[in-house]
Write a structure and sequence with these properties.
The protein is of the alpha+beta class. 38% of the residues lie in helices and 27% in strands. The protein folds into 3 domains: 53-64 and 223-298, Elongation Factor Tu (Ef-tu), domain 3; 65-96 and 189-219, OB fold (Dihydrolipoamide Acetyltransferase, E2P); 99-187. It contains 4 helices and 14 strands. Helix 3 runs antiparallel to helix 4.
Length: 301
C-alpha cells in the first residue's frame, strides 16, 4: 500500500469513530421511556365544597350598633362601665354633672306646687263670688237692694273668673318648666339603648363634653347576620328561608348554619347582583361582628 492510500484509510477510520461516539451520547427513545418525567401537582378539592359551588363573602353584622352621643353640654361626673362590659337595655353607663340642673328642677317643682295651691284658693274664691252674685241678682229682682250692689257682685265674680284662668295658666307654665328641666336632667344620664356590649369608650371622668360628642359605641352581640351579594342568576334560587353554610378564616374547620332573612327585590344594574342577608342559627360563640364570612351555595342550574 502506498503512503497516499494509507492516509486515506486512516482518515475514514477516524471519522467513523467520531460518528459512533456522537451517536452513543444521545438518549434513545427506549432510555427516555425508562426515565420517569416530573408530573404537575394534582389540585386537591376540599371535602366541604364542590367544584360546582359558588363562594360568596361578606361581613358579619348585627342589626343594633350605635355610637352614643351626649345630648347637652356638660362635664362627665361618673362612668360606670368599661370597654367589653356587657350591658342591659336602660343600664346607666355614665352621668354628667347635674347639680345646677337639680337645683333648678327643685325650684320649679316648688313653684309648680305653689301655683297649684294658688289655683285651688282662687277656685274656692270663685265659688263664693258665684254664690254672692246669684244672691244679689235675686235681691235685685225682689227690689231689696240697689242695682249698684248687684252690679258690684257681678263684677267681682267676673274678675275672679279671670284670676282663676290666670292662675291656671301660671300653674301650667310652672309644670312645663319643671318638665323641661326634668328632660334636661335625663340628658345627663347616659343609658344603654339595648342589650349588648361596650365596644368603645371615648371619654374620661372630668372631661368637658359638648352636645353631639361621642361617648360610647354600643354593639349588640345577637343575632348575628351576614350580608353579601350574589349574581343575578340566583334570582329565584335564593329566597327567604333558604338554608346556607357559613365559614370564616378566623374559625378554620368550623361551619355554621344560616338562613336567608332578606333578598333584595331588585338587581343592582351596575354590578348585576342582588343583596342578600342571612341570619346565623343558634348562638355561635367564636364569631364576632365585623368578621368576614364565606357563604357556600350550589351554582344555579
Amino acid at each position: 500500500m502506498t503512503r497516499k492510500s494509507f492516509g486515506g484509510a486512516l482518515l475514514v477510520t477516524l471519522c467513523g469513530t467520531l460518528l459512533l461516539s456522537g451517536c452513543s451520547s444521545n438518549v434513545t427513545p427506549a432510555d427516555a421511556a425508562a426515565t420517569p418525567a416530573e408530573k404537575p401537582p394534582v389540585p386537591t378539592i376540599s371535602p366541604s365544597s364542590s367544584p360546582a359551588d359558588y363562594i360568596a363573602s361578606g361581613p358579619i353584622v348585627v342589626e343594633d350598633q350605635v355610637e352614643l352621643a351626649v345630648q347637652r353640654d356638660g362635664v362627665v361626673a361618673s362612668i360606670f362601665v368599661e370597654m367589653g362590659a356587657p350591658v342591659k337595655k336602660g343600664q346607666l353607663l355614665a352621668k354628667l354633672d347635674d347639680r345646677q340642673l337639680t337645683a333648678e328642677r327643685d325650684a320649679a317643682v316648688a313653684k309648680a306646687r305653689s301655683a297649684e295651691a294658688d289655683l285651688k284658693n282662687w277656685e274656692e274664691t270663685l265659688k263664693v263670688a258665684q254664690t254672692e252674685r246669684d244672691r244679689t241678682e235675686q235681691l235685685w229682682a225682689d227690689k231689696i237692694i240697689a242695682r249698684t250692689e248687684e252690679e258690684k257682685a257681678k263684677f267681682q265674680y267676673d274678675a275672679t273668673v279671670f284670676e282663676v284662668e290666670r292662675q291656671r295658666e301660671d300653674m301650667k307654665y310652672a309644670q312645663q318648666t319643671q318638665k323641661s328641666l326634668e328632660l334636661e336632667l335625663e340628658k345627663t344620664r347616659i343609658t344603654a339603648p339595648f342589650d349588648g356590649v361596650v365596644a368603645r369608650r371615648y371619654v374620661q371622668v372630668g372631661q368637658e363634653v359638648a352636645k353631639n360628642d361621642r361617648l360610647f359605641w354600643i354593639s349588640a352581640v345577637q343575632p348575628l347576620r351576614v350580608k353579601f351579594t350574589l349574581p343575578e342568576a340566583y334570582v329565584g334560587h335564593v329566597r327567604k328561608g333558604t338554608e346556607l353554610i357559613v365559614a370564616t378564616a378566623a374559625t378554620p374547620g368550623e361551619v355554621h348554619p344560616a338562613r336567608v332573612v332578606f333578598v333584595s327585590p331588585v338587581v343592582d344594574p351596575s354590578s348585576d347582583t342582588i343583596d342578600v342577608t342571612a341570619e346565623l342559627q343558634g348562638r355561635p360563640t367564636n364569631l364576632r361582628p365585623g368578621m368576614t364570612a364565606n357563604i357556600r351555595l350550589p351554582n344555579p342550574q
